[in-house]
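Narrative summary of target 7.
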Amino acid sequence: MHVSMATSAGRAGRPNEDFVGAVPGAAVLLDGAGIPGTESICSHGVAWYTHRLGGALLGRLSRDDGRDLAAILASAIDETAADHRDTCDLTNPGSPQATVVIVRAHRGRLDHLLLADSFLVLDQVRGGPQVRTDEREVAARRVCSAPLDGVPRGTREYDRIRDSCVAALRARRNQPGGYWIAKDDPQAAEEAVTGSRPLDDLNGVALLSNGASRIVSPYGLTDWSGVADLLGAHGPAEVIRRVRQAEAGARGGPDAPVPDDATVAHCTHLG
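Modeled conformation, tokenized:
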């Protein structure tokens, strides 16, 4: 497997909370999440968590023993939680967490796992790209944010309702009927979206963090077929460059997204 990677912090002066890495036959991408300014909850921070969990995953994947990907993730979550359980409040909703994408070529097949809202693009030999993501967080966010519809931004009422919506979303994290993410509970790995495809069906695969996926939505610079073509012609760095260019153009608009960490891994020659 040939893997090319690129990553970019969303804002200067803040650590990149994404993680990307590869070992022979496998690649991992994590998109970190947490609440800024919560050092009293976890002194290490989100970037520490994603790098620790990513390293634990790569260590296990390097053994190339064909172990179930969900079991690998569960073990890595448990190890990472143990690294700071004695010093940090891991049960707090604001403690560090991360989305996870794993791909592994093994015995003629490509196995994959997704947990929360990063993206996997399967570049199929026939039929164009197939996009996989875990949509449960997006669905939960949509439901929890519904009370904000029609409330003017910048008002006290908006801020009050928004805080209530955030609390409601956190209450659904790693709960049945809600959404699942890597945090402190290894059982979350059993809820991951998994699948497997013959390697002969694929030209390659791409892993994108939420920040990099903005090239398709909300910016609409291309579709997923265009992303596959762009990766093939210019590589991951060009995807991120175009996202940053769009962010700069939208800056100052009322609905402009806050710049996010953006990371892409492109895997080819899978066999």
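The chain has two domains: 2-134+180-268, 136-179.
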